[in-house]
Design brief:
It is a single chain. The chain has about 425 residues and is an alpha+beta fold. Among the domains are: about 150 residues, no CATH class; about 110 residues, no CATH class. The protein is built from 17 helices and ten strands. The strands form three sheets. The protein has a four-stranded antiparallel sheet. Strands 4, 6, 7 and 8 form a four-stranded antiparallel sheet that branches. A hairpin with a 2-residue loop joins strand 6 and strand 7. Helix 1 packs antiparallel against helix 5 and helix 3 crosses helix 4. The chain starts with a helix and ends with a strand.
Length: about 425
Amino acid sequence: MTRPNARGVCSAISALFGNDRDSDCDVLFCLEQQEARKEEREKTAEPQAGSGLVGEPLPGHLLGQAAADARGSGRGNAGRGRRWQGQGWAAAAAAVEDEAGGSQAAAASHHARPSPAAVEFMACWAQLPDPAEEPTFAPVLAAAKEALVRHFGDALAVFNTPSLRKQLLQLPAAGVEALLGSEAFGTDSEDSVLLVLATWMKANHGQTDAATRRQLCRLVRLVQLGRPYLTAVLLALAADHETGAAGSPCAWFPISVTEAGFITTLATAATGVEAERLLCYGCQLYVTQSSYYSTAARPQCLPWTGRTFEWAISQKELLEALGHLPPYGCVSVHGSFVGGSRLLCARGLEWKVLLLVEHGATSAGVVLTCDLPAAYDVAGSRLGSSSKFIAVAGLEARLAVHGWSPGARRSRWDVVVAR
């Protein structure tokens, strides 16, 4: 089935839910223990009081019910009811699998497209069949996860493409697990992977429990973090976890200060021999076989030539800023990257480009500044806005400034982030 046709079938089936149009039966939901009363209910035209019905009857469609009954045959009402809820999985699966097997050219252009079938599919995670109970659903789920990773691409794309960032926040925990647990999800550094999780967690902490948070955090390869994250971010997260109240939004990363310190020492070990000795003793205290200690590198999303991000400032913004230029002073002018954001995320940090103009100067200066991402600014956290956070961070980048061009009265700057 081609992608347009598959999506059309998905939309048509979805539109039938709760719709009287073309309905040829009624669907009744009942408790599973009421199976013994099935024959009694079937003999009457109207449901009897106390019959164990749950909710209101829904208009049904025998075309979808027939396919559901075929898959749920011999499983009782519970099986058939579950397959009726999922009568659109077959069509959805076709769209998802088609998208997962799409060409590389289509994958490369995904940033301009709306949310694909895979994102919508994962959003329904709570209603999806359990692959353990429905083995035939496992390939569909695998295809959905593969398509999800292809859609988001890599950590830099997630942060620097507004539509992808918005879609990330709407994913269920299973979708985030699919991204961080995939060997195909690229990044510029493991710092950005931790930032992906922190960004999602800040928006969705209330929808998680301790077990879910632990499972997601275990996917981050901590020994591959950069020095700023090892010496400041990781230790602060560990301190928040130890001292914060159970379930507090600031205590979301389950690791002790002692283990965070051990990981920092291990990651910054001078030689391979030193690291081996540390692991020899550390395995007696910590689970060194977990992903925390994985040295397997994720795919590098930056090509050797780097990745270019355009930043521009309008003539109106520039003139307004110059209008506030004090005598013998200077003024800084903020522009915007493509998509409207004023910041660029790389190596787990937020970077901004500023145009500095001094009074009486014949030229302006371009400055690249760095800040800790707002994802870590959680109430009660040592990484909050009122904290004293100091770290030395670096970024291999090239700033290219394009001056005013005749007839195009605008300025444009390119930031090339290199490996």
